[in-house]
Known about the structure:
The chain is of the alpha/beta class. 37% of the residues lie in helices and 15% in strands. It is built from 21 helices and 21 strands. The strands form five sheets. The chain has a ten-stranded mixed β-sheet, sandwiched between helices.
Amino acid sequence: MLSLKYLILMRIALFLLVLLGALPAFSQHSSDRRPPKLIVGIVVDQMRYDYLYRYYDKYGEGGFKRLLREGFSCENTRFNYMPTYTAPGHAAIYTGTTPSINGIISNEWWDPEWGKHRYVTTDTTVQTVGGEGTVGQHSPRVLLSSTITDELRLSNDGRSKVVGICLKDRGSILPAGHMPNACFWFDDKGGNWITSTYYQDSLQLPDWVKFFNARRLPDQYMAQPWTPKLPLDSMPESFKGWSYKKQLGKNSGFPYDLPGMLKSSGNYGAIRYTPYGNRLTTDFALEAIESMQLGADSYTDFLCLSYSSTDYCGHHFGVHAAETQDTYLRLDEDLARLLSTLDKKFGKNNVLVFLTADHGGAETPQHLHDLQFPAGVFRESAMEQRLDSVLASVYIQPGKFVHEVSNQQVWLDQESLSNAGIASSDAADMIIEYLKAQPGVYDAFSYDYAQILPAEFPFIAEIRRGLHPRRSGDVIFTLDPAWHADDKFFLTAGTTHGSPFAYDTHIPLLWYGWRVPQGESHAPVSITDIAPTLAAMLRIMEPNGTTGTVIREVMK
């Protein structure tokens, strides 16, 4: 019979064995809880979902292919509102909600709060830093909800660093939120990265930005013609003899005379329409990581990195142009350089990367029309004057009754209508009747009627999510598929976006690095799901206006 002492010793030994067996699991669990050193949010402006695979065979191994191979792809990611433009897209990604909550209804609009037309991030209370005139008079004050970057800094008394970088001001400002450490965008005139006094008290750029600007990389990139990376006859993914594109400078095809454009224009704006705009953005982002010591301490930092040249190129050349393909092949090289640098500096498991887009892009209507498709361009820019004439002829009251027609919305001048004795509802009804009779218009209705249309009405949920009660127009109209209203820049060449249709809403979403499983899913994902998923990963609060939900597949 075993002694009591022996039994006690056996129980102690068994307890120690259990404890020792649990330690590795406990240690592993604790390790899993450590946050990433750095998050890099990449937004590729105007990247359609199919670009991931259309150019796949021509990509290298270290960029898009690596993200697909080693990361997780949400293959069925879509925007859940209209209009699909740059500012609303960037805002939705980072706020986890739609224009109906965050207030970013377009890139520009008639602002009833201002009583005039506004560009989204314009802020005349701040000054330009690093440039001249109004090019730096921008801030995020227009944004009505917090961002995931705001919530990260709020979670630890601002110890996390947040930086926004994009050629476009709005692509840098809206993702970085209300309280970033820095925000920079590109000044065409000086060829420099600049900011505003919203982000710093001094009228001088940080020394590291001055040193970077002094390297004059835009001059180097525009000192040689833009020629394709691959021979054109080895790019069957793009249409041979594609003519539905605009000239860039004096050239209508490769090679593009960038030195001549710089000399004739006297500014660096042309770099935006070439792959070198993305290359310059990558150069600056890598310098920001080093100089601002992102990821250097125990608090997670966040780099909001947006690539704009894909959008400028797409608008100019169209979705089937060799120029567009060349821009993506060279962006692939930049992504490979970025990922390789992050690996060497931090290690893959210490950095979380996501890549998505702010909207897609459409087929050129003239091209579709020539192929016997029903397609066209609605003359929105002429509509303001026409609607004034319609109202004046009906009510025998000459005057200006329409503030603006843009983004498929009509803003009425309520004061002018009242002074003329015209009821706003009557004016709206007349405008709706006129619009419904125009080619390409699917339907038209008042803002109030949009709120009560049945759920079965095509895209009504997306329309409602794109409207804000204090900012949107009095009348909304929708167009047929393959019709667009961007007639100022989009008639017979190039592409545009803004609709609720798949070509504008279906975009890529790739996750890579820290705690990200390998694989893919075709489960439906909304663009507003990115921010709450990041919040769940970091175990912090989601942005205060969030309407999206966590993407469970990425959390496995």
